[in-house]
Amino acid sequence: MTSSLVQVFKPLASLKLTIVCLACAMVLVFVGTLDQVQVGVYEAQLRYFKSFFLYFSLPGSQLKIPWFPGGYTLGGVLLVNLIAAHLSRFRLSWKKVGILILHSGLILLLVGQLFTSVFEEESQIQLDQGQTKNYSESPYLDELAIKNSAGANDDEIISVPASKLAKGASISLPSEGLTCK
Length: 181
Prior knowledge:
This protein is of the alpha+beta class. It has two domains: 3-119, no CATH class; 143-180, no CATH class. The chain has helices at residues 3-9, 15-39, 41-49, 71-88, 97-119; strands at residues 53-57, 64-69, 143-149, 155-161, 171-172, 179-180. Strands 1-2 form a two-stranded antiparallel ribbon. The model has no long low-confidence stretch (mean pLDDT 86).
């Protein structure tokens, strides 16, 4: 690798940056775990681990001030730091295959967690003994489901997300110009 490219990656590949990020991650996990008691597991995950920053709100104001990096920021900086370290420091040789495999596993772990966090859809099916269901329910997202039983075998189900439900609002349904008020 050329020396100018190494100089570009050198600040990003800093071991001090790695240590600071890991220390911040430990603080984030500790504070997020403690806050689960107050706000619940799901809300704590959203606030601490599925966010770019932790925010402080001034009392009586809508202003939010970032005060600490969130999980997405720390994971992204650690990922860039690890890749930059490999590009600037490590030379491929049989003696360093173990380090390469270990760091490749860490990169895969960070990227996999990011994709899981962004694209996941969590739902549950609760069954009693002998019961069958053909749907699952989200414990976090609400919706209004309208079932139109037109015949014995052909039910029409229309789903309206909770974000579109408001007192006094009209919702146009996709079935034959129906409107809910």
